[in-house]
Predict the 3D structure of the following.
Amino acid sequence: MALPLPHSSSPVRFADLKERVILVTGASSGIGAATARLLGAQGARVLLAARRVAACEALLDEIRSAGGEGLAMAADVARDEDMHGLVEAALTRWGRLDGAFNNAGVLGRGGPVAATADTDYDEVFDVNVRAAFHALRHQVPALRRGGGGALVFTASMAATVGFAQAAVYTASKHAVLGLVRSAALELGGEGIRVNALCPGVVDTAMSDVGFGSPAGRDAFVARTPAGRAGAPEEIAPAAAYLLSQASSFVNGQALLVDGGYTAV
Ligand SMILES: NC(=O)c1ccc[n+]([C@@H]2O[C@H](COP(=O)([O-])OP(=O)(O)OC[C@H]3O[C@@H](n4cnc5c(N)ncnc54)[C@H](OP(=O)(O)O)[C@@H]3O)[C@@H](O)[C@H]2O)c1
């Protein structure tokens, strides 16, 4: 019998997240929304950010109705000033930042690497890599003020293996992992942990587009030992774990949550 998927009212509990101030980017849908919902249910103060702020506000209403607390802001993570503004907003509202789930990302158009346009490369690297670099620039000083914290970046299983027809996306996620590992080495002595969350195939708006067709999706699922795609609610507990003290000795790691896809 298949077990039910976890959700915000499930027994998943990270008690130390209560009243922690955590920024979640890409909170308007998919993995970011599921994680923000779970963090809110733990009692964290969540700052929800994405370009589609109306979706973040709707999620915040839901979190507040369940007794949680937060703030929703429009932000384009590719813009340095927007990332700065998010961190400042957390400091102004709550006087601290304890962690961030840097999750916003784009897939790009994909296709043969030799035929990929510079504009596609720029869009993917601006959102997936430059934003991660800016996140470290602005979030690390804020965490230092509070004596430490945890940063989690959504990479992908594509940070650890190659994918034909998705070379630019794959390269961008490898770059995220490089930033994560290097920052972890630099910051570990200051009580700041930096980890990457690496999902496999997860049913979200991104994967709807990314598979290109139901047959494309089926091909990926067929290579996943779990025999199915994951749900965003199955990624969220791993993000919460990396943000919480439950992972206090985990630093600079790529946590694969991929139904076994990369276990070959
Ligand atoms: N789904 C998968 O199979 C899969 C697998 C591995 C890794 N991932 C990674 O998981 C993360 C979340 O993706 P998802 O699957 O949950 O897809 P999704 O539902 O499409 O979510 C993507 C999120 O990123 C936000 N975003 C994109 N560009 C942005 C920008 N310039 N500024 C601010 N926010 C931006 C989107 O919000 P707005 O459009 O409102 O700005 C949205 O909230 C991404 O980093 C993705 O690469 C996904």
Remarks:
- The pocket of NAP is lined by residues 25-26, 28-32, 50-52, 75-78, 103-106, 127, 154, 156, 199, 201-202, 204-207 (CB under 6 Å).
- Strands lie at 21-25, 45-50, 69-74, 99-102, 149-154, 192-199, 254-257.
